[in-house]
Amino acid sequence: MDNFGKSSRFKRKVLIVDDEMINREILGNILETNYDVCSCENGKQALEILSESRVHFSLILLDLIMPEMDGFELLEIMQKNENLSSIPVIVMTSEKTAEVKSIKLGASDFITKPYDLPEVILARCERIIGLYEKNSIIRSAEKDELTGLYTKEFFFEYIRQFERFDCTKSMDAIVINIEHFHTVNEMYGREVGDEVLRRTAEVLTQRFEDVDFIGCRTDADSFYLYVTHLDNFEDLPDELSNAFGQNPDFPQVRYRMGIYQDVNKDVPAEDSFDHAKIACDKIRGDYTKHIFCYSQEMSDKEVYHERLIRDIESSIRNKDFIVFYQPKYGIQGERPCLQSAEALVRWKHPELGMISPGEFIPLFEKNGLIQKLDRYVWEEAAEQIRKWREKYGVTIPVSVNVSRVDVYNPEFKNILDDILSEAEITSRELMLEITESAYSEDAEGLIRLIDNLRDKGFKIEMDDFGTGYSSLNMITTIPIDVLKMDMKFIRNMHKDEKSLKLVELIVDIAKFLKVPVVAEGVEEESQVNTLKKMGCDLIQGYYFSRPVPPEEFEVLIEKELNSQS
Ligand code: C2E
Ligand code: CA
Ligand code: CA
């Protein structure tokens, strides 16, 4: 058991350099219980030991007056040597004047001769070793080894120090990111990747040589810069890209840069860099833009979006989301005839008032929250179908919007099944609108899913047709039941010849596919007439009605029923 005691414990190495044996012995005796002590007679021998030893010395106790090579000379040599200068030295002297000179040469502390109490000497040694070790840990943690820039934690610490020193300067927070850095690593290897990062740091450091500049690298390929406010930075991404010249062994690297100019010093630096990062992320993958500046407008929007994200759940619970219905009219008969409706959601926010889906749908589509909202809308619509069926004895088929994320949810079909059985309606009554652009992502997977849904009896409408990029070939293979022409064609059909031709083309495609076509966004009678002549089947638009709440929609149902009888 004793083997694990003191004898095997790790001991730091201390070197005593003194020409007088008695001194070496006294010190050796004091230190040897705590340290692994080694001693020699002069500077020359000390240098030999230090250069030969493969073990690191934690401390040197140095006499000043010695033959061959004195303490001053050894200090001078050590100061110039990178390895040796990191070893702390305690000088042993009896003269005050020697102290000043040895401090200038890098000594850390003194022990006066004749020697103090052993405890005092031990305590001094311990303190100096501790101080140096802590310092070297800090130094290794504050810099990123690869680029020599700060690490993120120290970066923010230095910004705080800088601001404490002088907070009157106008500063910018810049975030620079290397586009597709992982492919650089994969295609060219890690070494080239590392070189790209090093070079990037080098160019940045040079570029900001003459101004206040604090830089760090974080998340592998992101650079954060806190610099004196710049008026002219447009050339920076190119300057970085050009840093590799035309070297064929190097990849063409693209940078994007987000800037938050003239940062607000009242908020923590971390927040300023969050802003710059948001700006930088905004142009991810956008090859037309290298630089994006953060603005107050962006910040307001962000805060607003955060709010909407925070409130969605409670609003679903409290039924603050209201489903409106917009009628679709068949126009090929003698008089327009109400056929079906589209469910369109509105947010009656308890504090922000009415919010249109254009504001929150894209946001919730991006973060996946749309799934919850869609499910709510489908449930509401299903319930409404049943209520109207019970009230009027007929089914008004309602179509609901299905987002891209819904389509890829493996539970999608089960959710629909649950909704149908809960509301006691059939799949023939609830129609599904899927936007055309969803088809371009995983056409095969989607086709399989749609086949499946159609087998169950659902009718599928391809929404916003003409905005996606489905080839004609693909359209003929996609199983759909209705084509909904995008609004933009209708809007311009009487303004430019091309749109009119496109409307005609889409109607023809639908005829070819033998499916009805819906024209959305129809506002004027002239549009209705033209569409009727072309052979368009259905119209949805303000011309007939805006999307309205269920009570108002009932007026349209009743009017329809009356005109039939
Ligand atoms: P959408 O599916 O293309 O819906 C048609 C949009 O056109 C609706 O906008 C409707 O109010 C508008 N509209 C209809 N007729 C006219 C017209 O004659 N003139 C003009 N200017 N506009 C007309 P809305 O309700 O603002 O919805 C916008 C989009 O939000 C919808 O486009 C749809 O993509 C999405 N959305 C709405 N409700 C839901 C929902 O419950 N779930 C999902 N995933 N998306 C929804
Ligand atoms: Ca739709
Ligand atoms: Ca549409």
Task: Report what the structure shows.
With 565 residues, this protein is α/β, with parallel strands linked by helices. The protein folds into 3 domains: 4-142, Rossmann fold (3-Layer(aba) Sandwich), CATH 3.40.50; 152-294, Alpha-Beta Plaits (2-Layer Sandwich), CATH 3.30.70.270; 316-564, TIM Barrel, CATH 3.20.20.450. Helices cover 47% and strands 19% of the residues. The chain is built from 22 helices and 19 strands. The strands form 3 sheets. The protein has an 8-stranded mixed barrel, surrounded by 4 helices. Strands 2-1-3-4-5 form a 5-stranded parallel β-sheet, sandwiched between helices. Strands 7-8-6-9-10 form a 5-stranded mixed β-sheet, with helices on both faces. Helix 21 (525-534) links the parallel strand 18 (517-520) and strand 19 (538-540). Helix 13 (370-392) packs parallel to helix 15. The radius of gyration is 38 Å and the shape is elongated. The model is unreliable at 1-8 (pLDDT under 50). It binds ligand C2E and calcium ion (2 copies). Ligand C2E is lined by residues 326, 344-345, 356-358, 361, 370, 374, 377, 401, 403, 463-464, 487, 520-523, 540-542, 547.
How would you sum up this structure in a few lines?
This protein is an alpha/beta fold.
